[in-house]
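Meet my pick.
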Amino acid sequence: MASTSSTLSISSSSTLVDAKAPRHSAASSPQCVTLPTLPPPPVQSQNRAGKTTAYCRKIARNVMAMATGEAPAEVATAEPPEIVKTVQEAWEKVEDKYAVSSLAVAVAVAVWGFSGMISAIDRLPLVPGVLELVGIGYTGWFAYKNLVFKPDREALTQKIKGTYKDIIGSS
């Protein structure tokens, strides 16, 4: 590298001199491929800038109203849905929050693992069809055994109610 200009040989047909590619005409070099130029970047529309300005004004108005102690008209004290209140009350009643949280994480991991296992089984040839036939067969057998005749339906209903009472407790 004794010369003052830097020359790097890429291949036998092209060289780089001072970090610039040599200029060859497309007709003289069949290996040369030109790419189309990129379109100019889109100009940001005035409509979007207006929306941004209006949004900033709205926030500034809300901040000024809150600083003076007034409640802005747009901010309403919305109450959470009923289900959120129910979940919050149930969570407050729980004594061992660590155990419940650990159980919830374990259930989430188990569901994730089982879904992966089921999707792997689903990819095997013939297995999904066989499992579907087994499910249809079991459904038919269960319906015939427990739902077709009235005494069987009543026995099933009593069994379900008994199991429900065992789980929930008598309240």
Summary: Confidence is low (pLDDT under 50) at residues 1-19. Helices lie at 46-68, 82-93, 97-122, 127-146, 150-168.
